[in-house]
Design a protein that fits this description.
The complex is a heterodimer of chains A (324) and B (236).
Chain A: E1 2-7, E2 9-10, E3 13-14, H1 16-32, E4 35-41, H2 46-49, E5 59-63, H3 73-86, E6 89-95, H4 98-111, E7 114-119, E8 124-126, E9 129-136, E10 141-147, E11 152-156, E12 171-174, E13 186-193, E14 205-209, H5 220-229, E15 232-235, H6 237-241, E16 262-266, H7 272-276, E17 283-288, E18 301-304, H8 307-323
Chain B: E1 10-11, E2 16-17, H1 28-41, E3 49-53, H2 59-68, E4 72-76, H3 83-94, E5 101-105, H4 116-124, E6 128-138, E7 141-148, E8 151-158, E9 161-165, H5 177-183, E10 188-191, E11 200-206, E12 215-216, H6 223-231
Parallel strand pairs in B: 3-4, 4-10, 5-9, 6-9
Antiparallel strand pairs in B: 1-2, 6-7, 7-8
Helix pairs in contact in B: 2-5, 3-4
The chains are: A alpha/beta (324), B alpha/beta (236).
The structure holds flavin-adenine dinucleotide (FAD).
Flavin-adenine dinucleotide binds at residues 210-212, 236-239, 252-255, 267-269, 271, 273-274, 277, 288-290, 293, 306-308 of chain A.
Cofactor (chain A): FAD
Binding site for FAD (chain A): 211, 267-274, 288
Keywords (chain A): Electron transport, FAD, Flavoprotein, Transport
Chain lengths: 324, 236
């Protein structure tokens, strides 16, 4: 029996969430006393594949056929399941990214495996009974879920598990899958990436602002603060509803759920639906002119003050810190 | 779904969600899916069937969906045990119905799994997009914008198709008086559930540890915040 970890690449490179999945899978394999194999699909250079070894995995399988040059969830799920079967893997691990969310259920169904989605910690292993933890009720609670099938697919939430270095040398095996034409009826027309920006779901620091900023013309200071910190920008729902910011920045119960190390909320009241998407952040800083704003109740640090005075000072203070 | 402002508590030694006193609403993402379906079918271009897995207590909610503009409803008479169970019910019903499009919400706001759309599509061997921001349908294909980390991807795919809808796909529709009147007489068929082996189960719940009380920093001394984030919180 072995553990198979699928590592997603973005245009040929592995992101931090991919290495988190590798580190997690290595720890799971150690827990279960099993071998570990990593799988990469698509065009990835050998030098990039070698990075997988940094996190303790030496057996790397690559599938690099023309057909699979771009992500098609049906076809990728078939390949991952095929490799899992051929390598006798009883556990498949992947990152719970946007693409991962489309893959994990399909892989589980193909393998008749139990699905543990969006795990936030290492599982407990007792024979075929595995238990994972995940957040439910929009981060208002944490559930312990038991996976009781003899196979399981676990997707790992980004930012939930720290990468762990444990360097080994890598051996790469090319695998030729059998992909059915019916799995390839989806064609990607275009990919639009805001290349100069940090991706919000994976960001370690998020600077977020709400209606307290009065209008879109005032976001310059939010972006400047984010840039100094290497942070992603986010906003509350009314801000994106009003078109001040794009929908892709909307965090909360009906937007993106984030779990950065640091979440800075500026001019956001802290409505329960907003908190649902951000309360998993490790440290929360709230800047609001109203000392009664509910957000202060869940914050670690707070500044009661006018954002238009505080943010420029904060920008200077962070600049000084970065230069020191 | 419990209303978004609900206090979430558990009973039976933290093993069961406590629904007493909780107001239930249609999952906001499912409302988007329903609104998109009604929009696509408008003007006689198609029909919309609403499917719900749950017991009879949900019928008022199903009537609300009919009032928004669905043509008929099906209720699979069983508690929605988990995503795999629900997906099997949907796929079993859909198998011989020739639907062009199956829309679900991107996730439920209680269990937040984002599992149902891809499970259903896999069971039916058809394409899927789990988190879509925009859907355009032409005769036999769909153009879908899906969210990816730090951007978006635009893809075309064949029908039939399963899509999990997110914000932006459609404006939530509110039932009008005529809708509410006609909803009463629209068909609502109750069918039995198919058996599905259970592969996973939630054993217990815990509520996250409360944060220690907020440390307030004077607005004229923001450098102290920077210092605390570095030396105490260790996040910069
Ligand atoms: C079903 C449902 C789902 C929802 N989902 C979401 C969601 O996913 N995400 C989300 O964010 N919301 C969501 N909401 C909306 C939510 O209830 C709140 O209305 C929203 O979060 C408020 O946004 P805000 O804090 O930016 O604005 P407000 O509530 O208007 O707060 C503005 C804040 O800015 C402060 N302020 C004003 N001026 C200044 C200044 N000069 N300097 C500093 N502070 C200042 C004010 O004191 C106030 O606290 C949802 C609502 C519903 C009903």
């Amino acid at each position: 029996m072995s553990v198979l970890v699928y590592i997603e690449n973005v245009e040929g490179t592995f992101k931090k969430s991919a290495f988190e999945a590798v580190s997690y899978a290595k720890a799971v394999a150690d827990l279960a006393g099993q071998d570990i194999i990593a799988l990469s699909i698509g065009q990835v250079e050998e030098s990039e594949l070698n990075k997988i070894g940094t996190y303790g995995v030496s057996n790397v399988v690559t599938v690099n056929t023309d057909q699979l040059g771009q992500f098609v969830n049906q076809a990728y799920a078939s390949v991952i399941a095929e490799v899992a079967k051929s390598k006798n893997a009883s556990t498949v691990i992947l990152s719970n990214t946007f693409s991962g969310k489309g893959l994990a259920p399909r892989i589980a169904a193909k393998l008749s495996a139990a699905l543990g989605a969006a795990a936030t910690a290492l599982p407990t292993v007792d024979g075929n009974k595995w238990q994972i933890k995940r957040t439910v009720f929009s981060s208002k609670a944490i559930a312990t879920e038991e996976l009781s099938a003899d196979k399981r697919v676990i997707s790992l939430s980004p930012n939930a598990f720290e990468v762990k270095e444990n360097p080994v040398s890598v051996s790469v095996e090319n695998f030729q899958p059998n992909v059915a034409g019916s799995d390839l009826s989806t064609v990607i027309k275009d990919i639009v990436r805001a290349t100069d920006k940090v991706s919000l779901p994976e960001a370690e620091i998020v600077v977020s602002a709400g209606r307290g900023l009065k209008g879109p013309e005032n976001w310059g200071m939010v972006e400047e603060l984010a840039e100094i910190l290497g942070a992603a920008t986010a906003c509350s729902k009314p801000v994106s509803d009003a078109g001040w910011r794009p929908h892709s920045e909307h965090v909360g119960q009906t937007g993106i759920a984030v779990s950065p190390n640091l979440y800075i909320a500026i001019g956001i009241s802290g409505a329960i639906q907003h908190l649902a998407g951000v309360s998993a952040s490790k440290t929360i800083v709230v800047i609001n002119k109203d000392p009664e704003a509910p957000f202060f109740k869940v914050a670690d640090y707070g500044i009661v003050g006018d954002a238009f005075e505080v943010i420029p000072q904060l920008i200077e203070a962070f600049k000084a810190y970065k230069n020191s | 779904m419990p209303d978004t402002t609900s206090k979430i508590t558990f009973s039976d030694n933290n093993s069961t969600f406590n629904s007493a006193g909780v107001q239930f609403i249609i999952n906001p993402y499912d409302e988007i899916a329903l609104s998109k379906a009604v929009e696509l079918a408008e003007g006689g271009k198609g029909t919309v069937t609403v499917l719900h897995v749950g017991d009879a207590s949900s019928e008022a909610t199903i009537r609300k969906a009919l009032a928004v503009g669905a043509d008929e409803a099906v209720r699979v008479d069983a508690p929605a045990r988990d995503a795999w169970f629900v997906a099997n019910q949907i796929a079993t019903y859909a198998k011989d119905q020739n639907f062009d499009l199956i829309l679900t919400g991107r996730e439920s706001i209680d269990y937040n799994g984002t599992q149902v759309p891809a499970f259903v599509a896999e069971l039916l061997s058809i394409p899927s997009v789990s988190i879509a921001k925009k859907i355009d349908i032409s005769d036999s294909s769909a153009t879908v914008e899906r969210e990816i980390e730090g951007g978006k991807e635009i893809l075309t795919t064949s029908l039939p198709l399963v899509v999990g809808t997110a914000e932006g796909v459609a404006e939530a529709k509110i039932p009008n008086m005529r809708g509410i009147m006609t909803a009463r007489t629209k068909p609502l068929n109750v069918i039995p559930a198919v058996e599905v082996a259970s592969l996973s189960a939630i054993k217990s719940y815990e509520t996250p540890a409360p944060r220690s009380t907020v440390k307030l920093i004077d607005k004229d001394n923001v450098a102290q915040l920077v210092e605390l984030l570095h030396s105490e919180a260790k996040v910069i």
